[in-house]
């Protein structure tokens, strides 16, 4: 698994030279290699869907379509993006905590393969709309485990959250499902944690979930076709060279996954994160009350992940020697530097008090691992600054 690290010269050859640098660069060929490598490590028969929420750019979806089993979406808008980018025949499955009549109607019209149901209300809505359409809608029931569950960056199950049906309520949901004649039960969905960096612990969690699904199927006389074990395969923003042990995870899960039901995974971050960077030009440098700041063309309105997770995002300083002004070039050396954007809020911070050997106005800050949950979760039009360039590289971009 490679990590995109462009040089200043490579950036200069790609961006618009008539304005300060602010751009996302995406290596789509590396993204596709990553997908093929992960798929090749999975247990036999397991399927990998791409979680569109991580990065929904049309270029990303088109590049991944030939490699992944399909796409996992969380909104009607994502269904339409997938169809527009990847065509009418790619497989789509749909999750998410809130569904409306219109969502279900669009899901049926766009031939979405399966709905992950997260509540009794969603069960009733899905059944009503499918019945009105005169069709049968395949579903999985999403389970919120009783816990405890392994630690991770985000936890959606095992604690009180808005996601899924509480484990204790699954028997009642299964009984109600018998009345929903326009729905077809295919299995269970578990997406309990996100960004789990413990491959062995994650395999143990998935094994437990798979065994629980089988036990329910036996107890209630169910035809268990599919268990979707979600994503949650972690990345480490504090160490860009660290990698989740996909092969070890698959080996640890292999014995439990043999035979029925079929397994599905829906991963986003681990696929998209490594193969993009966010590059910003330093427009100003100042020291305020003893603290050094580099102010960038860009910020959290383009790349919200660091402020959302309150972490210091990994970066490189890419030096540029050109200095067009007659006055001395401001610079800082061997200092603790805070990287901020152009927004009128002290929360617009991408890294805090990070040691830097040298930074000058006009140099570039290259944020690594910027391909997932950056642009897609950001408040692009706050203050109405220009959007960054979005540049896609490789044969897959053609």
UniProtKB/TrEMBL annotation:
Q: Which cofactor does it need?
A: pyridoxal 5'-phosphate
Q: What is the lineage of its organism?
A: Bacteria, Pseudomonadati, Pseudomonadota, Alphaproteobacteria, Sphingomonadales
Q: Which keywords does UniProt give here?
A: Pyridoxal phosphate
Q: Name one GO biological process term.
A: lysine biosynthetic process via diaminopimelate
Q: Domain Orn/DAP/Arg decarboxylase 2 C-terminal spans what residues?
A: 276-371
Q: Where is the active site?
A: 344 (proton donor)
This protein's source sits in the domain of life called Bacteria
Task: Determine if DNA-binding is one of this entry's keywords.
Answer: no
Any matching Pfam family: Orn_DAP_Arg_deC
- Write out the similarity annotation: Belongs to the Orn/Lys/Arg decarboxylase class-II family.
Q: What is this protein called?
A: Decarboxylase
Taking every annotated instance into account, which residue ranges of this chain make up the domain Orn/DAP/Arg decarboxylase 2 N-terminal? 30-273
One GO molecular function term of this record is: diaminopimelate decarboxylase activity
Q: Which residues form a coiled coil?
A: none
- PANTHER family for the chain: DIAMINOPIMELATE DECARBOXYLASE, GROUP IV DECARBOXYLASE
Instruction: Tell me the residues on which N6-(pyridoxal phosphate)lysine occurs.
Output: 53
């Amino acid at each position: 698994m490679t990590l995109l690290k462009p040089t200043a010269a490579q950036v200069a050859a790609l961006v618009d030279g008539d304005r300060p640098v602010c751009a996302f660069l995406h290596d789509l060929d590396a993204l596709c290699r990553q997908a093929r490598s992960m798929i090749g490590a999975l247990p036999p028969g397991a399927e990998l869907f791409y979680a569109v929420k991580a990065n929904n750019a049309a270029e990303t979806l088109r590049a991944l379509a030939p490699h992944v089993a399909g796409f996992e979406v969380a909104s009607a808008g994502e269904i339409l993006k997938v169809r527009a980018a990847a065509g009418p025949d790619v497989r789509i499955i749909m999750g998410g905590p809130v569904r409306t009549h219109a969502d279900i109607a669009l899901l049926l019209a766009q031939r979405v393969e399966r709905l992950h149901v997260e509540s009794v209300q969603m069960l009733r809505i899905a059944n009503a709309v499918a019945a009105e359409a005169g069709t049968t809608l395949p579903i999985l029931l999403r389970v919120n485990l009783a816990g405890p569950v392994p630690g991770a960056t985000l936890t959606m199950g095992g604690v009180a959250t808005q996601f899924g049906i509480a484990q204790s309520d699954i028997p009642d949901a299964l009984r109600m499902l018998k009345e929903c004649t326009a729905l077809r039960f295919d299995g269970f969905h578990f997406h309990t944690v996100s960004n789990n960096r413990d491959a062995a612990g994650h395999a143990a969690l998935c094994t437990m979930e798979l065994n629980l699904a089988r036990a329910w199927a036996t107890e209630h006389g169910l035809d268990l076709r599919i268990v979707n074990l979600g994503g949650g395969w972690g990345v480490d923003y504090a160490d860009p060279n660290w990698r989740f042990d996909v092969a070890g995870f698959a080996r640890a899960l292999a014995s439990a996954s043999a035979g029925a039901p079929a397994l599905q995974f829906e991963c986003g971050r681990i696929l998209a994160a490594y193969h993009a960077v966010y590059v910003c030009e330093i427009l100003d440098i100042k020291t305020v009350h003893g603290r050094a700041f580099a102010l960038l063309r860009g910020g959290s309105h383009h790349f919200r992940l660091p402020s959302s997770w309150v972490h210091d995002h990994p970066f490189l300083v890419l030096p540029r020697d050109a200095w067009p002004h007659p006055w001395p070039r401001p610079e800082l050396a061997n200092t603790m530097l805070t990287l901020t954007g152009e927004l009128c809020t002290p929360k617009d911070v991408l890294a805090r008090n990070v040691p830097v050997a040298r930074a000058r106005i006009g140099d570039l800050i290259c944020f690594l691992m910027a391909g997932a949950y950056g642009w897609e979760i950001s408040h692009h039009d706050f203050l109405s600054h220009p959007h960054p360039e979005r540049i896609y590289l490789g044969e897959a971009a053609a």
